[in-house]
Amino acid sequence: MKTQRRTVLKGMLASAAGMASLGLTEKASARTVARTHEAAGVVNHQEIPMFSASTRYGNLVFISGVGCHEGPNTIKHHTEVVMRELKKAIEAAGSSMDKVLRCYAYVDDIANVEGMNKVYDAAWPKGKMPARTCIAVAKGGIPGASLCEVDAICYI
Fold it and tell me: Does an H or E element contain 13, and which?
């Protein structure tokens, strides 16, 4: 029991130290939210989704998931569009691809993971691959009939 408690306490201390180094110890009232719908290509206010394209907290930026809603219905094409638009959103928020800490990637079919990975892997600067979780969702689970969607957490 003491060993478990020590492990938990060590983890909490490491997390607190990491948060402090990333500037996350500021007051919640100092939280700023940046809306970058223009960067995501949304020009008609009726097209604005019910969420922010990005949200900033301290020096962290949370980029909402980007899907593909155009062109050929292939995982290669969809991933190319997603990664290109994700890069635009990251840069519009004031960051860059080499400052991405974590991504969540969603695919409509587990069989598409290999094809997505080929394009996804090439989109990152050499040696700057972020942590990632890949999730295969139920058919039709990605809005807009996109075959994949990727979001990101980066820093400024």
Answer: helix 2-21
Q: What is the pTM of this model?
A: 0.70
CA count, 13 A, side-chain hemisphere, 61: 23
Query: Amino acid letter at 34?
Result: A
For 24, 45, 124, 146, the CA distances from 68, given in Å and listed in that order, are: 32, 19, 19, 5
- What's the whole-number mean pLDDT along residues 110-126? 95
Closest CA to 54 of 86, 22, 19, 21: 86
Q: What is the pLDDT of residue 47?
A: 60
DSSP H helices, 33-155, are: 75-92, 113-122
Distance (Å, whole) CA 6 – CA 3: 5
Q: How many CA atoms are closer than 13 Å to the CA of 142, on its beta-carbon side? A: 23
